[in-house]
Structures are given as C-alpha cells and as structure tokens.
Design a protein that fits this description.
Length: 294
C-alpha cells in the first residue's frame, strides 16, 4: 500500500490532473448548443456549478465523457487526455449558425484533484482559482482549476494543510474499487448510456438532444441487455481486460478493468454482465475464480 493510496482511502490526497483536456466554450449560443449536444441539463447551469455528461452520436452511442463547469462568460469542458481533439471535432460539426467559439486551454491551465474522506475539511488554498464538484476516483473531494504558473503554490498550500500526493496508479486503484468507469477503458464508442449505469450523466427530463431518441427508447423498454457492474473476485492477481465472465457454465459478460485492492484484500473488477446476472450478490465465475456482483 502506498502513501498516496492510503491518503485517497483514509485522508486527503492531491492529484495532478493537468494532462486532462480542458476546452473553453464561449459565445452567446454556448449554453444552447452544449445543451443540444450533451446528455445532461446545461441550460439550467449557473456560474460555479458543474455537471457530468456524455456526447452521443445519433445512434445514442457514447462518443466522449465530459465534465462541464459553468463560468459567467463561458463553459469549461474537462475530458480525458485522448479525447481533447475528438470533443472539439464533435462539437464543431454541429456549429452551423451558432455563435460559439472553442479554445483548447489545456496547455495554459492546470487541474488539481483534491480527493479522499479528509478533502472537504482541508482549508482551500488562497489565490486565483476555481473549484469544481468533480472527482476522478469517486471519493469525496473537488477539482481545482488554475493557471499553470499558480499550480506549484496551490500544491504547497494543500500539502501544508495535510494533503499528500497520489499517483495515477493510486487513483486508478481507488476508482475501480469505487466502481467508477473511465472512458477508453470501461466506456467505449459503442457503449450506450444506460449500460454504463452512470445516471448522474443523463437527464431524462430535458428536451431533444443528439442521441436522445435512443436513450428514451431504452428507458421506455425498461432495460438494456448488459450492465457495467463491480465484481469482487477471490484472487490476488488482476484480471486482464476482455476475459470472459461466466454464469452456470455459459458466457455472461467480460471484464473491462481490474485491480488488486489493498482495502478489500481481493481483486475488484469492472465488467459488462448480461442483465439477468447483474443483480448485487449474483454468483459468477472468471475462469477458475469465484466472482460476485458487488
């Protein structure tokens, strides 16, 4: 167990998230356009608020995973490092007569995750920055956005308050322990929103948006054929992505990501499992290993 992992699980940790993509969307039509292209409520956002959303294609498949933070005069779109270009291309495809400007501000801004059960009792650092209600790992916490030049000073203040540095590997372990998927690993271009079980990213009451027809059709039908679930596995070695999950000798799904959990003393995996086998407590197998839906 590393110090960073322990801080994420039991104290307060800081994470350097500056590699994530950050795109500024400005212009008078920004809220309307983003509302029409994302799966969550954007028009109702007010300065200082944030939301998680998916960008879908017309077939309802997830093209990207974004976190939107509202400023008085623009939105900041925070996404996985490898989605920076894709997100901009996707949005630009639908800018027709809209007054919307996109600017990639990744290089001149920084992002710091402050996460763990002690994160919210840490004194916020002083200085010019914004605080958004996002966490990478699913632990309590928040994200700080600032200019690149200010990051070192903010980190010094966080460490003086008791936060400890955590690595990307520490964060991945805790994220999977908490059952929080990552785009590119657990969510891909063919995934449907309801399959991912990330209902915080979906509004079922907003009006028409790209891909909404499929999302609504699935909701009306009442189920999807498979669901992303968290599995507890009696073992000590992580399971490779793509390994099949079985139920009563028949194929029931496949693993997307896996870690050995120091906290639980077993392997925790995320896997897509056929809906009849996705209920908590369902007994499954991965090869010779017993697994259980958590």
């Amino acid at each position: 167990m590393t110090e960073g992992y322990d801080a994420l699980r039991h104290g307060a940790a800081w994470l350097d998230l500056s590699a994530r993509g950050r795109i500024r969307a400005s212009g008078r039509d920004r809220a309307r356009l983003l509302h029409n292209l994302t799966s969550n409520e954007v028009k109702k956002m007010t300065p200082g608020s944030g939301c998680h959303a998916f960008l879908l294609n017309p077939q309802g498949r997830i093209q990207a995973d974004v976190y939107l933070f509202c400023y008085p005069d623009h939105f900041l779109l925070d996404t996985e490092p490898e989605l920076r270009e894709k997100v901009q291309q996707h949005i630009r495809r639908y800018i027709i007569a809209d007054q919307v400007e996109l600017e990639d501000v990744t290089a001149r801004t920084a992002a710091i995750g402050v996460e763990g059960p002690g994160a919210e009792t840490l004194q916020l650092p002083a200085g010019e920055h914004s605080v958004a209600p996002f966490t990478l790992t699913g632990q309590p916490g928040y994200r700080i956005y600032c200019a690149v030049e200010q990051m070192a000073d903010l980190v010094r203040q966080l460490e003086a308050g008791g936060a400890r540095p955590a690595s990307a590997e520490d964060a991945r372990t805790v994220r999977i322990e908490n059952g929080k998927p990552r785009y590119g690993e657990d969510i891909v271009e063919t995934s449907l929103p309801q399959e991912t079980q990330q209902f915080d990213a979906i509004s079922f009451t907003k009006g028409c948006y790209l891909g909404q027809e499929i999302v609504e059709r699935i909701r009306a039908r009442g189920h999807v054929n498979r669901k992303l679930v968290r599995l507890e596995i009696a073992g000590s070695e992580p399971v490779a992505p793509g390994v099949k999950v079985t139920a009563d000798g028949a194929e029931a799904g496949e693993v997307t990501s896996s870690v050995y959990s120091p906290e639980f003393g077993k392997v925790i995996s995320l896997a897509y499992v056929r809906t009849p086998h996705a209920e908590p407590g369902a007994a499954l197998r991965i090869g010779d290993l017993a697994a259980r839906v958590a």
